[in-house]
Amino acid sequence: MRRKEYTGEGWFLRLSGNKLRESARSTALTLGVCAMPLLVCAQAPDGPMTPQPGTAVQKAPAEIKVRTLLVNTPVTVRNEKGEMVNTLEKADFHVTDNGVQQIITHFTLGGDPVSLVVVVEASDRIAPILPQIRKTGILISQTVVGPTGEGAVIAYDDEVNVLQDFTSSPDDMEKAMSQLKEGYSGARLFDAMSKAVELLASRPEVSATDLGKRRVMLVIGEAHDKGSEDKLGEVLRRAQLANITIYTVGISGLRADLQKKPNPQPVPKATPDGIVGMPGPPGVVQTPSNDPSVAGGANLIGLAVWVVTHVKDKVTSRQLEIASAATGGEHVSTWKNWSIQNAIDEIGGELHSQYTLSYTPGGNVSDGYHEIKVTIDRKDLTVRARPGYYIEPPES
Which domain holds residue 335? Predict the structure, then answer.
């Protein structure tokens, strides 16, 4: 039963019996549901809360960044005759990172496939040699890339052009090299190497859990740069962190230089005038007269470390040798009867007969230069590996 009543404050609908009980339950349920957001709001009011006097203000925890990285290093071992040694086991190798012994997580002998980028000069400075370079495509695909690898081709002069993206087809590699065209007088070597680093860094690499590929760059050109925006030290820093090994084939732009005997010249400085490339003994003030890079016995590893740690300085000579030394590769000059084909064949043979070691530095990886040392217990063998890598401090 329902009826209207006037209470003096307005008209109300009066319910009785079951209708009254149902209305009460409905009202209680509605109030209960509405109370939930009210309680939530009471626990987390809008806007900042004013701390009570004498109560310490809680601050958000500081962000902790722990950097981890995988370090791959190719290792070439030769005997006293210069022959490759391929009978060693994982237990024969010892690796340190800034003096700290590392655990080798991946170990192979020439078995990992290769991701290769060929960086080839196409300037008019080397026009007489271009016919020889055009014929190297099949040799590169067979001896360097191999049956399970992949390759890409970059040409440079005044510009940097990707002639062939990554392919596993030997025919595509051969075609890209055979169609190499003579360009202009510029030689943007460092920019071309930078592009190669970018391409290689996108490829899956070998690790303890991933069947990727070794990242390799093959540079065929002069030890000369003209017009690049990138600097060699910057490129090498990135190459080291991306575990890229750089092999270089040095060529000359003059046909006469290929035919005549080399004229011995003093080793040029790899650093600008007024900058000493290598540190001397403690307590000795270095001058141009005792700088090893001037005296003729330049330590390429030392120069490579200097270039990587002084990226803003300009490198004026021996750029290809330094690039190879900084990444554990090899530089081959095409002098006398040592042709471009011979050089590529030598590099391919080494790539598929060397060891690959991987490790992950423990703990938080510090900024700055990290020295890698790879040793074996046998004294009659010579070991060549990448000297290290550089980690830039975070931007402030």
Answer: 111-267+298-352
pLDDT per position as a tens digit, 108-162 = 998 789 999 999 999 999 999 999 999 999 999 999 999 999 999 999 999 999 9
HSE value, Cβ hemisphere, 13 Å, CA-based, for 166: 18
Residues 12, 3: Cα–Cα separation, whole Å:
8
Query: Does 290 fall in a domain?
Result: no
* 237 and 164 within one domain: yes
Whether residue 230 contacts residue 191, with contact meaning beta carbons closer than 8 Å, is answered with yes
What does the buried/exposed string (b/e) look like for 260-284 if buried means 16 or more CB atoms within 10 Å of the residue's CB?
A: eeeeeeeeebbbeeeebbbeeeeee
Query: On the CB side of 237, how many CA atoms lie within 13 Å of its CA?
Result: 19
Q: DSSP label at 226?
A: B
Contacts of 95 by beta carbon, 8 Å cutoff, 6+ apart: 73, 101, 102, 104, 357, 359, 372, 373, 374
Q: How many residues does the chain have?
A: 396
Tens of pLDDT, residues 190-219: 999 999 999 999 998 876 566 678 999 999
Q: Is 197 found in the same domain as 344?
A: yes
CA distance 119 to 156: 8
Token readout for 135 is: 């014929």
Residue from 136, 138, 122, 174 nearest 341 by CA: 136
Contact in structure between 361 and 102 (CB atoms under 8 Å): yes
Two structure tokens written together for 159: 């510009």
Closest CA to 114 of 198, 208, 195, 216: 216
What is the distance between the alpha carbons of residues 156 and 221, in angstroms, rounded to a whole number? 9
Q: Which of 133, 138, 110 is nearest to 122 (CA)?
A: 133
Q: Tell me, what amino acid is at 269? A: K
Q: Are residues 91 and 116 in the same domain?
A: no
